[in-house]
Fold this sequence. Notes:
globular; eight-stranded mixed beta sheet; five-stranded mixed β-barrel; about 30% helix; alpha+beta
Amino acid sequence: MHAYRTHHCGALRASDAGSPARLSGWVHRKRDHGSLLFIDLRDHYGMTQCVVAQGSPVLKLLEELRPESVITVTGDVVPREAGTVNAKLPTGAIELRVRDVEVQSSAEVLPIQVAGEAEFPEELRLRYRFLDLRRERQHRNLMLRSQVISSIRRRMIDQGFTEFQTPILTASSPEGARDFLVPARLHPGKFYALPQAPQQFKQLCMVAGFDRYFQIAPCFRDEASRADRSPGEFYQLDFEMSFVTQEDVFAAIEPVLAGVFEEFDDWTGTKRAVTPAPFPRIPYQQAMLEYGSDKPDLRNPIKITDVSAHFAGGGFGLFAKVTASGGVVRAIPAPGAAGRPRSFFDGLNEWARAEGQGGLGYIAWDADGAKGPIAKNLEADRVAAIAAACGLGAGDAVFFVANKAAEAGKFSGAVRNRVGRDLGLLEENAFRFCWVTDFPMYERNEDTGQIEFSHNPFSMPQGGLEALNSMDPLDIKAFQYDIVCNGIELSSGAIRNHRPDIMIRAFEIAGYPAEEVEHRFGGMLNAFRYGAPPHGGSAPGIDRIVMLIADEPAIREVILFPMNQQAEDLMMGAPARVPPERLKELHIKLDLPPVKGSKPG
Length: 601
């Protein structure tokens, strides 16, 4: 018999009754029934109920053991008595009658409980993550992650992609976030950067003649935490393709993503619908108008409408003034809301004020016509035109946001989300995908007034060099696209700029002189001068994919050892101070900010 186990804790079945067995695992739970002591023994694969009778020589030892101690038990498999079979447990038809026990490791008093569904503070969970991961939900999430990555890898290979690994120590790149820097000991005063993404390397793979590249790539960004973003590091399905149009990229990745979500559509116990390929394509300007966001949640059927023309010069003076000064009025339909009590409308108005807005005007239609303060002051034909533009009738309502275009667009998106949730309009048990396309190549920095790249600086502008030389930069669109699922951006991507002349001009418009572009991106530019194919790709986030499938509200729930929101690893004590002799070896002197509350000098 094996020293530790003949079976896993999830393997024994009724057909094994009458056979000896040896199991090893963690003491999950103990139940003392007087004449019998029951122990649920758990390992990676499952749980088996073990039973020890009064008078057994191992009873005292097991009674004194704390939960989560690791033991090896040997005994006989017996069928459970009638009425005690646990149909919810794969091993629920049998139990192991224990004859012998060996304690492999005794556990101390637990800082967090593994058995049960109790909630614990994030700090405790992360400090004792190795215990947290023993809990069923966390363990299952990480197994899902592994299976999702395996599925993605298999599907990418089936699509003709080849897996490569790109460097981790590299040069800084303007990806839109801060780099993590690594001092170069052999080159005093110089630093490597951890890659924010393998952007330049994957493009160089295309220049090198590899037609379809992918990797499950680690990426590093020194940025703040969010519910859908892990601080410090994350993983993405990074891929690139040669001789492709935007539609070719979509056609390659849609079956992979749809297939993965379909494969795990019932992971939570409820089957969920998945948008079939091809996914809807929504131009950026349309997304911002109709959904108030470049990450539209298509489970919500509400579409925003611009009704500025119906208020311009009209009787509702506040909105007429907004349109006269160049602002806009956006209408957010609320189907079926007219029958809601006044408190519903007042509550949304108070929420809008709490969000820093002046309020949230509305019109509601009942059998007698339009109601509400706006309807009383706005001409009847204008009210009717608004109803027609929004597709509304008796029983419906509409909310309005009036402001400058950018502010109105952003807040109308928030209203759309809030109204959709409050009215229960969101489609349940569904993954709804879309592509957002035609992003602007540039945007103006509101603080400096300078022209900047709006997304990936290595994207090909629509219209190429002619557009860069002849158009207003703010009117130039790029071959850039995002893939969105249920309002969460999974990835940004683009058809790349593979021409040195176009790249130098594109960066020049964003304030980078040619010599700086040559200095910072000389490796890639030099490669492009020796023949570069048209190419493009994208990089859907692995963490976000798993978070959606697992139906978890926070991304840390699907990461093995996540940091806290302050980018600290509480379990390993990182970041940590470095001894002075190590800093000297790296030619580094610290210039630390003063400690709060301390006096200078």
